[in-house]
Design brief:
Layout (H helix, E strand, L loop, with lengths): L17 H7 L8 H10 L1 H6 L4 H5 L4 H8 L2 H19 L4 H6 L9 E4 L15 H16 L3 E6 L7 E4 L5 E4 L11 E2 L9 E6 L2 E12 L2 E7 L7 H4 L10 H21 L6 E5 L5 H14 L3 H9 L2 E4 L10 E2 L1 H14 L4 H6 L12 E2 H8 L2 E4 L2 H10 L15 E2 L6 H4 L2 H11 L10 H5 L6 H29 L4 H8 L7 E6 L15 H8 L6 E6 L7 H14 L8 E4 L4 H10 L2 E4 L21 E4 L5 H4 L5 E3 L9 H25 L8 H14 L5 H44 L4 E8 L12 E9 L8 E9 L10 E11 L2 E9 L6 E9 L14 E2 L3
Parallel strand pairs: 1-2, 1-9, 2-8, 9-10, 10-13, 13-14, 15-16, 15-18, 16-17, 18-19, 19-20
Antiparallel strand pairs: 3-4, 5-7, 6-7, 7-8, 11-12, 21-22, 22-25, 23-24, 23-26, 24-25, 26-27
Helix pairs in contact: 1-6, 2-6, 8-28, 10-11, 11-12, 12-28, 20-21, 20-24
């Protein structure tokens, strides 16, 4: 047999099409519908086969097709127009950030955003679900708003798994290798033109990390890759799978992300003033920033830590303590014993940085605690999640009312241009104005939704549903053929789904707490809903279970078996391999988005937000974002936010509520038609949802909120503490030492009120004078703030939902400091107050950094 010397020949891009290459390598195309249409027009079949990857497609399209496109004046005009549009976007300096914040005189990028996963486009499979999509949307809106921000993540050789179902409906996982050279990525290079790499010290060896760049509009995303020849095969696999491997592999990945990520930025000449940790996976960056500053400024750990924490922000998405990464000391010691010495710490003191109780040697190292202690600000991702998180960390703030525990909240959003359908985008262009995408967070923009004629909006919704159902049938037939099923089953799939029936979508990670089978609790009742001759209902479902989540996999299997019944076959379709492409199709076409988490387990959730600009409505448990967004005029709520001690009882009650809502509200409203066949009341609800929710639940609003509430204050704190060779950071360390040592001496000696509240009737509007005598010991009045904390009393005679009224220092006599102030009585009912003393310092984030408080006691 003759020897064959194989080689790969790629097509030559004709010069008139050079603009396509520039478009392909900037992921801005992922939210530019006209650019996407251009690539699809070049070769529709190849566009689908490539997984919507323009780089791969340009390397595989036939030379004949390229030559023909280079002679097509219409296509060339499209290329030129897309190039001009992209160039104008990238070069424009008239951005929200420039208008609102001004041109900050600091090195750019100013903010570094670290995340374990980024969901930007389906052709860059380095995401698994909501956290990754949120991270990708954060970068996209940062680009749209002009933030000086860069992303940092990991580049996975296999990423998250691809899903198939076997004949029994059991999830199977495939891990195809990614070819980085055929993706919208470019390797970063050093001044000598070699691939840019950084190193980390692992036990007995050095691990090299290569840096790649994905350009997301104006924002660079640097991705870290250990799958390079200098590393051993085991170390090459560190960045193999997202959330794969054992606990040691997770530790290695998080070291690469947090420590390797900062070192990569340093090699690139980037010194971020603010580091935003999206979840605790990247928390080791706190230590690496401290180590770098100690080395650069020749200061000790405590001073460097104060300066670094001023510029760190931690966002948690976890609703339960079990969701945090925990590492035992015997796992950490080989990796961090020497590193701790570089920080000037014993290994036990190092472990204390990640323990809830620093001195408890039985505790594991908690990445969330490291992030919380290393950040000047911490937030959850919805108002409800903020409250849940405050309860989770309450042990560290035992004497503080829950509302005053320093965990803020910024409710998540979606990048609207990435999920709105092209047809809806064109409709909104006509009625909201061509610049509506630049003012997504402005309620005035969305107020014009009311101007859209009902007939026109409904015709679009009908077309979108039919497009989705056609897509679903085609995809279902492909899966059935892959499983080896015969033509009768495939023909049945072609007849599935009614283009005019109420279509409900459910798609998300199949974790058991999300209760994907809640709607299946009463099979006969569900079948009656699905098969009502006059008012049929159908379900489109999708989602992946974690490879080690047997319970989640079984939920998928149950749904598949139910859907195979003759009575359900045409009404329920489960679509395999849920990804961004499938998500877009679903949120653009379904009438109702169903979400059934067990409250309060959903930190935020963003899938339901994606139907908003497409005219879909939400039917959800009031958890996460829906707990604050719900109103009867914009959707439906499964319950009123009750929380149950018995999960089985919760499931029973809420399943019944769900059926009643569908039977009595949702289905009748959808099928209540005018003489012209238009569901006027349904459309009114659609318009209310779009008008009231779209300006709030988008990442433009979210990123602007992060900027104004966290990024800019963090920058200002960081600059202040870093000035004059960290003079204020040194002063803050000394102040904290003095406060900790002197705080046990702080006592409230006496409190008086005029008029005496127990002797005189008080009326709303009266002012109660409060005087307190405080023993401060070695501390001064400048070190503390004294307050009368007042509000309504609960059944246990505790102040519930109180607020502080400041007391002002008046004099000092015989070692006692006199404070006075007043409380305005603004509400009737049983009220009370208590005097308290707290530390105060202009450079400290309190009580996050120093949870000290002294209350008036008997």
């Amino acid at each position: 047999m003759p020897i064959v010397h194989a080689f790969h020949v790629v097509p030559t891009l004709p010069p008139p099409l050079d603009g396509l290459r520039a478009l392909a390598y900037n992921l801005h195309w992922a939210w530019d519908h006209e650019a996407i249409a251009l690539f699809e027009r070049l070769d529709p079949d190849l566009w689908e086969q490539s997984g919507h990857n323009p780089v791969e497609m340009l390397g595989a399209v036939s030379q004949q097709r390229l030559n023909a496109a280079a002679q097509d004046e219409s296509f060339l005009a499209g290329v030129e127009q897309a190039g001009r549009r992209a160039e104008a976007y990238l070069q424009s300096e008239d951005t929200w950030f420039r208008r609102e914040v001004g041109d900050l005189a600091v090195p750019k990028p100013l903010i570094a955003y670290f995340s374990m996963e980024f969901g930007i486009a389906e052709c860059l499979p380095i995401y698994s679900g909501g956290l990754g999509v949120l991270s990708g949307d954060h970068l996209k809106s940062s680009s749209d708003l002009g933030l000086p921000l860069t992303g940092v993540g990991l580049l996975y050789q296999q990423g998250y798994f691809r899903q198939t179902l076997n004949a029994d409906g059991w999830q199977q996982e495939r891990y195809p290798n990614n070819d980085f050279t055929r993706m919208p990525l470019l390797p970063e290079r050093d001044p000598q033109g070699e691939p840019l790499r950084v190193t980390l010290d692992f036990p007995g060896r050095t691990v090299a990390v290569q840096v790649w760049r994905a350009q997301v509009g104006r924002v660079p995303l640097f991705l870290l890759d250990t799958n390079i020849p200098p590393n051993s095969p085991g170390d090459q696999d560190i960045t193999d799978q997202l959330y794969g491997g054992d606990m040691e592999r997770r530790l290695q990945q998080e070291m690469v992300l947090g420590i390797g990520g900062l070192r990569a930025l340093a090699r690139l000449g980037i010194q971020p003033a603010v580091c935003h940790m999206n979840e605790g996976h990247s928390a080791f960056l706190v230590l690496e920033r401290i180590r770098m500053l100690m080395q650069a400024q020749q200061v000790d750990f405590r001073v460097a830590r104060e300066a670094v924490a001023a510029g760190d922000l931690f966002t948690t998405h976890t609703p339960v303590p079990a969701g945090f990464d925990l590492f035992p000391p015997d796992l950490l010691a080989p990796y961090f014993a020497a590193y701790a010495e570089q920080l000037g710490l014993s290994f036990d003191a190092f472990m204390g940085l990640g323990r809830i109780h620093r001195q408890d040697s039985g505790e594991k190292f908690n990445m969330a605690m490291l992030a919380l202690r290393g950040a000047h600000a911490v937030n959850g991702v919805s108002r409800l999640h903020g409250r849940v998180t405050r309860r989770m960390v309450q042990a560290g703030f035992a004497s503080f009312p829950e509302d005053e525990i320093p965990i803020a909240s910024v409710t998540n959003g979606i990048h609207t241009p990435s999920f709105v359908s092209p047809a809806m985008e064109r409709l909104l262009d006509r009625y909201l104005g061509a610049g509506w995408q630049e003012a997504l967070a402005d309620p005035n923009t969305w107020a014009r939704v009311t101007d859209i004629p009902d007939e026109e909006l409904w015709a679009l919704r009908e077309a979108q549903r039919q497009k989705l159902l056609g897509f679903a049938r085609e995809r279902l037939q492909v899966y059935l053929r892959q499983r080896g099923l015969g033509e009768p089953e495939i023909l049945q799939a072609a007849a599935a789904l009614d283009p005019h029936a109420l279509t409900i979508g459910f798609a998300r990670r199949f974790a058991t707490y999300k209760r994907a089978t809640l709607l299946f609790s009463d099979p006969l009742r569900l079948l009656r809903l699905l098969n009502n001759a006059d008012r049929p209902v159908q379900l489109l479902m999708a989602g992946k279970a974690h490879p080690r989540d047997e319970g989640g996999k079984d939920l998928i299997r149950q749904i598949i078996h139910f859907a195979r019944q003759d009575e359900a076959r045409r009404r329920i379709v489960f679509l395999e391999d849920y990804d961004l492409a499938l998500a877009r199709q679903m949120v653009q076409g379904v009438d109702v988005w169903l979400n059934t988490p067990r409250r309060p387990m959903e930190a935020s959730g963003t899938s339901g937000m994606k139907v908003l600009p497409n005219g879909g409505l939400n039917l959800s448990v009031p958890d996460g974002w829906w707990a604050e967004a719900y109103d009867p005029e914009v959707g439906w709520s499964i319950g009123r936010g009750e929380e149950y001690a018995d999960p089985a009882e919760q499931d029973r009650v809420e399943a019944n509520t769900l059926y009643e809502l569908l039977e009595n509200d949702v289905v009748p409203l959808f099928y209540d038609r005018s003489p012209e066949g238009i569901p006027r009341a349904w459309i009114g609800k659609m318009k209310n949802s779009m008008r009231r929710l779209c300006p709030v639940y988008n990442t433009n609003r979210m990123v602007a909120e992060y900027t104004q509430r966290f990024y800019i204050p963090a920058l200002q704190r960081q600059e202040a503490l870093a000035a004059d060779h960290l003079a204020r950071a040194r002063s803050l360390v000394e102040w904290k030492q003095r406060l900790r040592a002197g705080w046990p001496q702080v006592q409230i000696a006496q409190v008086e009120a005029q008029p005496p509240p127990d002797e005189t009737p008080l009326h709303v509007g009266h002012r109660l004078r409060v005087a307190a005598s405080i023993h401060l010991g070695v501390l001064s009045p400048q070190d503390v703030t004294v307050q009368a904390f007042h509000g309504p009393l609960d059944a246990d005679n505790r102040i519930a939902g109180g607020e502080p009224a400041p007391l002002t220092w008046k004099a000092a006599q015989n070692g006692l400091h006199q404070y006075e102030g007043e409380i305005t009585l603004s509400a009737s009912g049983l009220q009370g107050f208590s005097v308290r003393v707290l530390p105060t310092h202009p450079d400290a984030a309190l009580p996050l950094e120093l949870p000290l408080i002294t209350w008036e006691e008997k």
